[in-house]
Hints:
By secondary structure, this protein is an alpha+beta fold. The protein is built from 12 helices and 25 strands.
Amino acid sequence: xxxxxxVAAVMCLLGSVVISxxxxxxxxxxxxxRCKTETLQGKKFRFCRGLVKSKDKTVxxxxxxxxxxxxxxxxxxxxxxxxxxGSKTSYEVRFESDPQHDPAKDTIEGVGGRYRYxxxxxASRGYAVINYTARGWHEDECLDDTVMSSDARPDYxxxxxxxxxLNHKEYEIKDTHHLIGRLVDQTLLSAxxxxxxxxxxxxxxxxxxxxxxxxxxxxxxxSPKGRSIKLRVAAPLxxxxxMLDALAPNGTTHANLIPPTDVAERAAQRPGVIKQSYINxxxxxxxxxxxxxGDLPDYLNAWRDRALDGEPYNDETYTHLVDxxxxxxxxxxxxxxxxxxxxxxxxxxxxxxPAVQSLGMVNRLWAENPEHPLKVLLNDxxxxxxxxxxxxxxxxxxxxxxxxxxxxxxxxxxxxxxxxSFETVCNEAGEQEMSNYVAGSFDALQSGTQSFDMSLLxxxxxxxxxxxxxxxxxxxxxxxxxxxxxxxxxxxxxxxAATVALPEGLDMLGLPTVSFEADxxxxxxxxxxxxxxxxxxxxxxxxxxxxRLGSDEAQTVITRLQGNNYEFQPGHSLKxxxxxxxxxxxxxxxxxxxxxxxxxxxxxxxxxxxxxxxG
Length: 615
């Protein structure tokens, strides 16, 4: 039985997810989108709106296309893909005819997250721009709820394909292919225009970023009329490439290595630790903003319940969840069809889709072809607990424009490949300079590591710890938090911590490594890590991580934190804290008990000063 939620009771919990949406006119699904002339800041554009039947004929997709005012093409194409809970309007600005038009915000250039990243901005530069609401959200309409998703099973059979499929490669990805294909075939619009099928670009944020990464692997397709199409360039922002690792990391990831690319090998790894706070937040958004508010495919309900029921994860539902997340929703495990130049923006401080989601993928792509044009921008950007400083966001928008313009319009110089990283600077730091580092590879951003003997961390962790800092580090606290997360320096009884003075400071860039001996009382326990910058009686969270222990036997553990680019000021101290219970950020283990810890070593990757950008 499908579930319902009381929308009003939880609406306030999703402030960052709420997106207003304007319903499309009630068109017959097979009709072309109606186009009319619109005006913004004295310039005219053609704006086309309507509902488009999906290729599988189970759903109509709420779709807009924005065109330059003049010309019949062929125009290069950009498809813009929204985040979870968003819609086609997420990266649109309102024209002057819209009653909700705001002259301060609705400009061609855009403001905030739409700065040089919106439908009208790109149309003003000569693009045909597709913005559509992904399958199952907001104003999309189910045409046939008797066709079940390929993820339906006897235990969760009521799973219509017309509903949200969480970016499944056979549904949402094919929807994007179909819309672009109809635009290529000149059957999508009432306007008599053509587009260049060899100049197709995709970009998306969060949910749309994961979608964009998947398009880079499923990058060749044919239009309904049989015309061949290839994705020319992609720009994913703060998305995932391994959905399982993003939602439930197990601590085996390393930015400088390529994880297993075989689905069976990856699925056989120890289970990860559920990011409980994020999953609950996302679940609320799925229920509220689905087209059938409160109704989701039964398999998604079953997967969520199984994940939050906790260990041991050894049943058919969990096995199906893991296999489908890897095989059907993760770009990293999809085979390459062609080389797609890609610029990716990923957040060091994004605690759901961190830097390694891009770095692991880029390492695989460069292993497949060292000449693959790729750029990764790492910064303090994304989902909580990122601060999203305006200058960093502006830099990212301009970088994306450079890549799209070169590969789709032939404008500007060829963008350079490599990795670039901006330092995370807390808002409270005032005028502290924000450094950025540029190199041809991630390794070249670093100049070795600095090791710390953390033998003082010898002791026992207790998963029943009452830790007041745990709630302060929740990505979604009850009271909004601005700036970096800081607390007092107390250590809860049941946690372990050690502090090292840094008289000369330390420029960290990358994923710190922790090695230690662990002897857990039970199987399925985990150890979580917090790296703090301590000054006086205040500590600022710099980094965190988690590792699932392999058994209830004594074991040697080597793992890595999420990573950051952060400068510890001279005279500050570095503090490493360990806990066996980091709820609500991570789900508490069902195995409640103690873990004996010893022989802790900590290595911090150091920024390469030679890679520091000048000016």
